[in-house]
Amino acid sequence: MLIAFKLKLLLACAAGLAGPIAVAPLVSDMAVHGTATEPAIVRVAPGSLSYREAGDFTRAGQQAEVPLRAMRFNRPLHIMRHQVSSSDYQLCVRDGACRALDRGVAIASDRPAVQVSWHDAQAYAGWLSRKTGHTYRLPSDAEWAFAAGSRFRDDGAPVDADDPSKRWISRYERESERDFSDTTAHPFGKFGPNEHGIEDIAGNVWEWTSTCFMRSRIDEAGNAGRPTVNCGVRVAEGAHRAYVTDFIRDARAGGCAQGVPPANLGFRLVREEPSWVASVSARWGKVWAARS
Fold first, then answer.
1. Which residues pair with 78 in a beta bridge?
2. Residue 66 and residue 232: Cα distance in Å, rounded?
3. In the chain, where are the structural domains located?
4. Which of the four, 63, 74, 120, 238, has the lowest number of CB atoms within 10 Å?
5. Which positions ≥6 away from 214 have C-beta within 8 Å?
6. Confidence category of residue 251, pLDDT binned at 50, 70, 90
7. How far apart are CA 149 and CA 108, in angstroms?
8. Cβ atoms within 10 A of the Cβ of 253, count?
9. pLDDT recorded at residue 25
């Protein structure tokens, strides 16, 4: 009966099933800096990782194991050391640029902003970009995996061609063994830093990414065809990969996700660093403007 219930619960979600990310340990030349107006940023050095695409993959009409491919980041990734705090998010609310947090969310400088939708995260990124003059955005799923380093393990399950449901049940039971009873949004530092110095990544706050859910067919050679993309569902990363409808603020109260629902939905942002050429051009532009 328990197995049947789990299977029905999984089938009820139109979230798709894909193996999570397998991340090779990376070495970071960590640099952290921040001010009262700029969040603390960690610089993750260029490196490589093994990555499984987010989404649902099939072969000949049956569930297929997601292809594992090597990825290389040739430029450093600059990402927030902590998730966006509830007090920083509240500044955006006061400016009228962000939707108010739910009443149950504690407002503090050392607590993450949780119960926020993908659209809430996008609104905050736009507001922070305008306030600071830098470009902030949500990381892609691959960028999040790269930043997470060894905190994210590949828990993709093999596919039984005769009974694909065994894979779904196996994943659900593996996730159920983890302790998801703790849904408290703890102060920063509760789950510690990873090898890059990024705090609390893959803790009990799942983080929104910019990556859309997709479905794709795989041919006999293992090559994925052109995907069908659904950007009404986004990838959220935490202790496991989840697919959540973009307007959901609390996945436990109605958000459909892969396996066990996320305990909390929050986010951290990537800061775009201008290229050397763009920086020099902007600097000379200001000089010529001053002379004219």
1. 43
2. 22
3. 2-291
4. 74
5. 16, 53, 54, 55, 56, 227, 228, 229, 230
6. confident
7. 28
8. 9
9. 33
